[in-house]
Amino acid sequence: MEWNKALLIHHLHAGKANRENTVGLVTGVLAPAIHELVVIRTDEPGEGERLCRERGEEFDVVFILGGDGTVHECVNGLASLHNPPQIGVLPGGTCNDFARSLGISPDVETAAQELLERRVIPVDVGRAGDRVFTNFFGIGLISDTSQNINENLKGALGKVSYLISTLQTISRSEPFRYELEIDGEWKKGEAVMIYAANGRFLGTNALPFAPDALQDGQLDVLIIHETGIPLLREVLSHKPEGEWQPRNESISYFKASTLNIKTDVPMPADTDGELYMKTPAELSVLAGHLHFLTGVEE
């Protein structure tokens, strides 16, 4: 059985080197399973979102070749459609965290072959105001880290550049005051980071969230009250068998279907690695809103 019509989107400047070779490789794998495959390169910011919004309903499936930022852009177009197509994510970025959450191989040729198996699941999408996100929304340390990434290092060193930026940011992070309305209840305090996750990976590292995090209708929310390497080690290395309960008192963890975030002064927010929003912010979950092709289950 083949798809009748599919779209493959890739961005001129996104992700890994040898983009043209990668596109050819992916096309060679996908084409035999598709009656009509349309391949479009986007060149400008926002072009992928406009393309998906204007033409997404023409296709049975839309393949997105790129990193988390490219996926974020395209999904913001697709999520607005009345009848969105199936979506296949092909890893073409530095970390590809959302693809990892979907169980998709980091090797792009293997990933394309996996997507042809047509394992499709309904996936939650986070909403922040009138925008959506697939992987996370965060303020504080997470957005500071994104701002500090050296783009030249990012291209040369890949995920190592995120580690370098994180270590540099930790050394000078300062707490901020916040108020949170969590499913109707208010909390307040100080933190160095608030991280609301839909996905299960950050900087290629698995987070200690349940395997059904993409399908539970809730966000996994971390509040890091003070920072340090031991805190990051607990968050990034703990693999729970059941529901995670942090051992360190400097970490608060809970699930929420709605989250209203206020800070003393407007703070930049990182959504899937993209910096264009600020607090205050109202978050919610569009449960099972989009259907994604998945890779091999972990």
Helix content: 25-40%
The poorly predicted ranges are 150-161
How many helical stretches?
9
- Summed over residues and divided by their number, the pLDDT gives a mean of 86
What is the N-to-C succession of helices and strands?
EHEHEHEHHEEEHHHEEEEEEHEEEEE
Secondary-structure-derived class: alpha+beta
Order of strands, main sheet, comes to 6-5-18-15-8-9
Shape: elongated
How large is the share of residues in beta strands? 35-45%
Distance between the termini: 26 Å
Q: How does the major sheet shape up?
A: 6 strands, antiparallel
User: In angstroms, what is the radius of gyration?
Assistant: 19 Å
SSE arrangement:
Elements: E1 3-11, H1 19-30, E2 34-42, H2 47-55, E3 61-66, H3 68-78, E4 86-91, H4 97-101, H5 108-115, E5 120-128, E6 131-133, E7 136-140, H6 141-148, H7 151-157, H8 159-170, E8 176-182, E9 185-191, E10 193-197, E11 201-202, E12 205-206, E13 219-224, H9 229-237, E14 251-256, E15 258-263, E16 268-271, E17 274-278, E18 281-293
Parallel strand pairs: 1-2, 1-3, 3-4
Antiparallel strand pairs: 5-6, 5-18, 7-10, 7-16, 8-9, 8-15, 10-13, 11-12, 13-14, 15-18, 16-17
Helix pairs in contact: 1-5, 2-3, 6-8, 7-8
Structure report:
The protein is an alpha+beta fold. Helix content is 27%, strand content 37%. It has helices at 19-30, 47-55, 68-78, 97-101, 108-115, 141-148, 151-157, 159-170, 229-237, and strands spanning 3-11, 34-42, 61-66, 86-91, 120-128, 131-133, 136-140, 176-182, 185-191, 193-197, 201-202, 205-206, 219-224, 251-256, 258-263, 268-271, 274-278, 281-293. The strands form four sheets. The chain has a six-stranded antiparallel beta sheet with strand order 6-5-18-15-8-9, covered by helices on one side. A six-stranded antiparallel beta sheet has the order 14-13-10-7-16-17. Helix 1 (19-30) runs parallel beside helix 5 (108-115) and helix 2 (47-55) packs parallel to helix 3 (68-78). The protein starts with a strand and ends in a 5-residue tail after the last strand. The relative contact order is 0.16. Mean pLDDT is 86; it is low at 150-161.
